[in-house]
Amino acid sequence: MSGAPGGRPRRCVRWKELKHLAANNIITLYHGTTHDFTEIDVSRGKPFKDFGQGFYATQSRESAVNMALRNRNIELRRLKRRGISREVTPWLFTFELDESKLEALNVKRFDGADKEWVRFIVLNRTNEMPQHEYDVVIGATANDVASRTAQLYMAGEYGDVDSDEAVEFFLRRMQPERLPRQFFFRTRRAANLLVSKGRRVVK
Hints:
Blueprint: H1 10-24, E1 26-33, E2 55-58, H2 61-81, E3 91-98, E4 107-109, H3 115-125, E5 136-140, H4 144-154, H5 164-174, E6 181-185, H6 188-191, E7 195-201
Parallel strand pairs: 4-5
Antiparallel strand pairs: 1-3, 2-6, 3-7, 5-6
């Protein structure tokens, strides 16, 4: 085996390169919630969501924190209406995902918020049963502003929901370039790719 300058074997240099490439495939995802858990159960996700019923995570730490706080406030209001006084803890979970492992799964990627993305989230938000067979869906997050805009769109406020004009108006109102990317995991096989890196209470 020939050596590299300094007597170091070329095989070691190659190993470092491989480690660097592997590290580049690792991304960090966040999940904000009021539910503490040790294992992801995709069946506990609620229907009528952007990409369907399953487990959601985002690359935006800020978005996940805001989601945890938002859900805490919603739960506190529900408890108050029922005359119950107790603490609700907002949690931020951190995961790592090796994107190279997604190649073995059925994955749908939306490069941006476009007409196809709009029609896909409307389809899922208006149907309780699964509307696709993807293991993973990756695309823009419909945040609070986008969600209110989507409600108006689905109510026909921008015209016929099947028309390109209504979809284009919806997209302009949403400012899609500001929407963070979310990852949706529909199957247990997909969720098992997430490596937990801990959780903490959101202050």
